[in-house]
Amino acid sequence: MKEFIEFIAKNLVDKPEEVSITEELRESKTVFKLKVGESDIGKVIGKQGKTAQAMRTLLSAVSAKEGKRVILEIVD
């Protein structure tokens, strides 16, 4: 799943080399923290958060298929 998020994020931003993802476990959930360059944060979030929400929806679908629960956080 980490590679999936990274693929989407790198194709959205102008500086794909600044994309990084960390993974941590909280209770029964996996939290992915997506960090992008300062100038690219708006591209990952999108207008009214629609791009970020779409990424979360895709991630939920993939994780549900594997029987896992995941959360995507976008950090700066």
Question: Main traits of this protein?
Answer:
single chain; 76 residues; alpha+beta; GMP Synthetase, Chain A, domain 3; 3-stranded mixed sheet; 3 helices; 3 strands; 42% helix
Short description:
The protein is an alpha+beta fold and 76 residues long. The chain contains 3 helices and 3 strands.
CATH architecture classification: 2-Layer Sandwich
Helix content: 40-55%
Helical segment count: 3
How many β-strand stretches? Answer: 3
| pLDDT averaged over residues | 94
**CATH level 1 name:** Alpha Beta
Largest sheet: 3 strands, mixed
Could you list the spans in which at least 5 consecutive residues all have pLDDT below 50?
A: none
Strand order of the largest sheet: 1-2-3
User: Helix and strand succession?
Assistant: HEEHHE
- Strand proportion, as a percent range, falls in 25-35%
What is the structural class?
alpha+beta
Overall structural domain count = 1
Give the N-to-C terminal Cα separation.
21 Å
- The CATH superfamily is known as K homology (KH) domain
**Overall geometry:** globular
Determine the CATH topology.
Answer: GMP Synthetase, Chain A, domain 3
Q: Radius of gyration from the CA trace? A: 12 Å
Please give the structural blueprint.
Elements: H1 2-12, E1 20-26, E2 29-35, H2 41-45, H3 50-65, E3 70-75
Parallel strand pairs: 2-3
Antiparallel strand pairs: 1-2
Characterise this structure.
The chain is 42% helix and 26% strand. It starts with a helix and ends with a strand. The longest helix is centred in the last third of the chain and has 16 residues, at 50-65. The protein is of the alpha+beta class and 76 residues long. The mean pLDDT is 94. It contains 3 helices and 3 strands, in the order H-E-E-H-H-E. The chain is globular. It has a single domain, classed as K homology (KH) domain (GMP Synthetase, Chain A, domain 3, 2-Layer Sandwich), CATH 3.30.300. It has a 3-stranded mixed β-sheet.
